[in-house]
Amino acid sequence: MVVNDRPQKRAKRRVTATPFDFLTFPGDVGAVGLDGPFRENIRIFLSLHGRPLAALPILAPSAAPSVDRPHLLTWRVPFRVSSADGREGTPAPDVELYVLEEDVLQSKSIYCDQCRVVGWSDHPVCGKRYHFIIRNDKSSLSGAGVACTRCGALLSYSNLRCLSCSCEITYDSYESWACLLLQDYTHLLHGIVHANGYGHLLRVNGREGGSKYLTGFNIMSFWDRLCKMLHVRKVSVMDISKKHGMDYRLLHAVTVGHPWYGNWGYKFGTGSFALTAESYQKAVDTLSSLQLSIFLSGTRFPRTQLQNTISLYCSLSDCQLLTIRDLFCYLMQLLHFPPAGHKSAEVAAVGALCAWSRDQVDLAKATVIKFLRAVVGPQWVTWRALRRASCHAIKPPELLDYCLKVIVGEQVSNGSIVARYNLDSKTIEYRLEATNSQLTATPCLPRLSRGQLVHDLRFLYDSLLNPITMQPYRPKTVREAALNSAFKLLDCKQLIRHYDEPVLNLLPTNPFVMALWCHVELVDYPDDYIVLPPELLVMPVEATIFDLKKMVTKAFQETYLIFQRFKVEQLVNYEDASDVTPIKTLFGSRGMVQIRGRCDGNNQNLGQYRKERGLDNWIVDCSCGAKDDDGERMMACDVCGVWHHTRCAGIDDSEDPPARFVCEKCTSICKRRGKASGGLENGNPIGRCQDEIRSSFARAGSFECLTTVG
């Protein structure tokens, strides 16, 4: 020990040494000190738990960029997945969360495409965007690094020079890697949150997406807890999730009543083609309540594959399947919770004896065996034929169905009853098997393999739910209603999670601070010049009006680019209050405050940051009722320039749009004026030139401001 008279040095705040558990984060300690808005919480979170990647001191001075700071800064937050395979003693795999801070002012993509189609296109452009990324297990960054610009060798982030050619690592190399990271579509998680707390979940990939340890449920639960901890306000997601090649938003809505993301509070946000939350719910109810008897009522022979498949699962289920929801719920249950082999018959028997006596069950078994003995030779008898032959002798029908389930394996003289699953006819078949036969009798119905279940699920999905491949059936009005409902469910892709709703009504957990939601209006500008969501301010209870003005100025200057020269002038309705007046005497521990201010100087250069939609001033007026961009394919009228959905104009998504397009309104006007042909042949259309209309189809999580065609 060394003792001297020097004062002890203050310990620096260090990044957490022990990684958090991914499945339980943040727990009791991860969210300590995160009581403010997102713009403040994200900085605290990164300083406590983040490890800078390629920080400024690491790179050589000569490698520094020409601008003041790089366009992207990256942190790594390590996690550990406990009980990854459910067995104790197995080493827990590591997972890293990458947080990229994007400086929008220097970014190549100033405007947010996601905000444009979710209803936030009028929000001002934020100065910062934060990307939360979990890389795919097969492409972990810890083993990759930055590629050398000269020889292409992969280098560790701690290296200042290439080990092969001694080339110096530059910021351009680092930022090129970071840009590629943002464009990678294989991430297990990729979410974006703007500095104002509005965010977008771009993708979640579980086991089917390449994850080795994490399921989609694990990743979504982590993202949900992370958003709550950081006080994210709203998060949108475009639900284009797939399950076994099927649109999961349609399948999950039919089986559960809401999309898969609804398990974490995501609700209907904005519907394409002017759909509303009420029309979405009506479509769910219409399609999921469709009666299965519609498909089984026909007496035509031979029976169709659809009828055989429905009858198969109706016969396997211990409960009566009446609707489409019942059918798909049962199939999903078989996929996720398969029967436990021989025990299923025993469990079913216990429940059955509560309704029927043992004598009734034995008598029913004897009747079925009698019909099987009457079969000539070793022929198989289908479930349907055996049930039809026994239905008059065994009543009620529930007793007969139960008997057909438990009779498998029943020992009779010189043999036993066996059953098999016929892949071709999609039926269960029975016969009496001699004792010396090589076919082993099992005391339960044959179990379907996972591959068979997935095959049947996809067949039923295509036949009953998918509007493109839905099979024809009667009555025609019922099918048309089901078809329209399926289209509506597929068209409702934009979902929103409102994290800020409970915050509005909660008191601060810290008794020494107060929370105010601040609304700002600009002087000398029209009311519709800018649309600002309120900003949350957390300040000490002894704060004054002067402190409030100072904090509001700083908050809006740091959050929005257009407010870089913003200054607060006065509080609305409290113009005469002195700057030394305590805020708590006016608003209490929580409340709403209206601020009036102005942006000094020439604001023309900052005008491009007024809206996330950019400088475009498009007009949408489609026949379906849509008044704004909804992410669907559109085209502009060559006469008036108004945008319309291609689908509403009778153009299928798989078809190319016409070289010229004139909407119905302009067509009728031209006809009345007798200039229909002249208006179309003119080389000078009033509307947007076709060369300016971009051809774009929405990709997973990435689409143009107006997903248009030309």
UniProtKB/TrEMBL annotation:
Keywords: Metal-binding, Transcription, Transcription regulation, Zinc, Zinc-finger. PROSITE patterns: UPF0054 (PS01306), ZF_PHD_1 (PS01359). Residues 621-667 form the Zinc finger PHD-type domain. GO terms for molecular function: zinc ion binding. Pfam families: PHD (PF00628), Ubiquitin_At1g33420 (PF25565), WHD_plant_repro (PF25874). This is Zinc finger PHD-type domain-containing protein. It comes from Zingiber officinale.
